[in-house]
Amino acid sequence: KQKFILDTDPGIDDALAIALACRHADLELLGVCAVAGNALLSCTYPNAKNIMKLCGRADVPVLRGHDAPLEKKLRCGDDAHGINGLDGYEFLDQPKLPETEEAVNFMIDMVMRYPHEVTIVAIGPFTNVAAAIQQEEQFASHVKRILVMGGAVNVPGNVSAVAEFNVMSDPLAAQIIVNSGIDVSFIPLDITLQTRLKPEDLAEICENDHPVSNFLNAVLKHRFEVLEARGELGYPMHDPLTIGALIDPSLIQYEDYFMQIETTQGALAEGMCVLDRRREAPKPNVHVGVGVDSDRFLTLYKETIRGY
Ligand code: BDR
Ligand code: CA
């Protein structure tokens, strides 16, 4: 089983990703770190806790992470995730936010306890992960790898002409990660936008009439309407595909590049992933997902969730 820590900002597609991460037999989820992003931490933390409980994994620790990016102001993704990050979906319990940050020490402890065994999967802004790299000198040499949902490489961004939400939320954190010397893989918009859950896929999932699928149905319903009004068919599986990439690496085709992130605040290209494609480019520092077997992933997704 693959040991991993999930760093997340739930978030509708984060919720879909957590449901997959909790259920798949090949994965050993050590902990869930909540970060501010799609919504304030005061929402993403209780959301993460509630979703874990709903998925039958209340035994897995959920840790409070950073409530703001390293050096810029938080800008939540309300357009895409509505109020509270889950389009207004309210759980009965509202677990209290711990008073202090605890995710960074948790990540460091796990990575040092299981050297070269722990993968960090980050599907929100990369603030917690970057803070762990900065805080513990040995983190980079002891972590197995980092897998992130982020970036737009050959397609337009989703929060500016060139930038994707997770990278744009904390470009400095992204830059720290790509320059850390760690084995880093990016699952960018290029392939997540090609991988969409259609209403009929959701209907198939919901045949099991389980609280998890009913919850996913509730948070996605309105999203499908919004997307349809915009002429888009299906919900992009940004974060779930990243879990897919962990479960089955053969779903993704990667290319290796030397990549840097534009960190200048307010600049036209802030948050852009700049690939150096020149022949004289420095040695690659990231694997970038450029191709995906979307159908195979969607089958894996549906089968796993139907297994609840
Ligand atoms: C990413 O941004 C968030 O809105 C989603 O949860 C996903 O992690 C897509 O750009
Ligand atoms: Ca996310």
From TrEMBL:
<protein>
    <recommendedName>
        <fullName>Inosine/uridine-preferring nucleoside hydrolase domain-containing protein</fullName>
    </recommendedName>
</protein>
<dbReference type="Pfam" id="PF01156">
    <property type="entry name" value="IU_nuc_hydro"/>
</dbReference>
<dbReference type="InterPro" id="IPR001910">
    <property type="entry name" value="Inosine/uridine_hydrolase_dom"/>
</dbReference>
<dbReference type="InterPro" id="IPR036452">
    <property type="entry name" value="Ribo_hydro-like"/>
</dbReference>
<keyword id="KW-0378">Hydrolase</keyword>
<dbReference type="GO" id="GO:0005829">
    <property type="term" value="C:cytosol"/>
</dbReference>
<dbReference type="GO" id="GO:0008477">
    <property type="term" value="F:purine nucleosidase activity"/>
</dbReference>
<keyword id="KW-0326">Glycosidase</keyword>
<dbReference type="InterPro" id="IPR023186">
    <property type="entry name" value="IUNH"/>
</dbReference>
<feature type="domain" description="Inosine/uridine-preferring nucleoside hydrolase">
    <location>
        <begin position="5"/>
        <end position="298"/>
    </location>
</feature>
<dbReference type="GO" id="GO:0006152">
    <property type="term" value="P:purine nucleoside catabolic process"/>
</dbReference>
